Amino acid sequence: DGGITQSPKYLFRKEGQNVTLSCEQNLNHDAMYWYRQDPGQGLRLIYYSQIVNDFQKGDIAEGYSVSREKKESFPLTVTSAQKNPTAFYLCASSRQGAPNTGELFFGEGSRLTVL
Amino acid sequence: AQSVTQLGSHVSVSEGALVLLRCNYSSSVPPYLFWYVQYPNQGLQLLLKYTSAATLVKGINGFEAEFKKSETSFHLTKPSAHMSDAAEYFCAVIYSSNTGKLIFGQGTTLQVKP
Fold first, then answer.
1. DSSP β-ladder status, A10-13 and A110-114
2. How many residue contacts between A and B have a Cβ separation below 8 Å?
3. Cβ separation of A90 and B46 shorter than 8 Å?
4. Which of A80, A95, B48, B110 is the residue whose CA sits 20 to 30 A from B85?
5. Of A42, A48, A103, the CB nearest to B105
């Protein structure tokens, strides 16, 4: 079945460590997104990519990095510079252009906890 | 700033009762409006989408939403709540179709009591 796979589902990190969250999709979508979810704050956009080898910062990119070397993959690295990394991270993808604009397909998320 | 506001972080209804979840957007008319649903520890799933073709939009699982320009609202309703509707619901808007960036509301948790 087509979909988005995020791994790991749960991740624990010590302060000062970088961690990388994996996101793979087999939907042949051009655009991919990373969101951070905190209780009571909805979803906030970290980075997005509309095409391979190109990506843009979202609203809360500081302390995060991404790459888009393949259409199917959009990994997110949470660096030690991120001051409050404990959160639920969601990856999503979509086709480009209307009428598909805004129709995101989400993975099941990765929950990161900093010890 | 462009934004979307969901009134009420928690809504509780009895099984079989009307569900009403409120969403208001900022004054500029957005080209697209959405409702997404999230079940515990899962990603989001699209419920329905408004694209100006019709003001009343029907979605999955019996949900619908009405776009009211005069009230800058896009409230989500369902005539009769089911236990399986218990989840978190997010309203979202796109103001720039060029980037396709969604702006999400804060979310409303729906509790359904037996």
1. parallel
2. 64
3. no
4. A95
5. A42
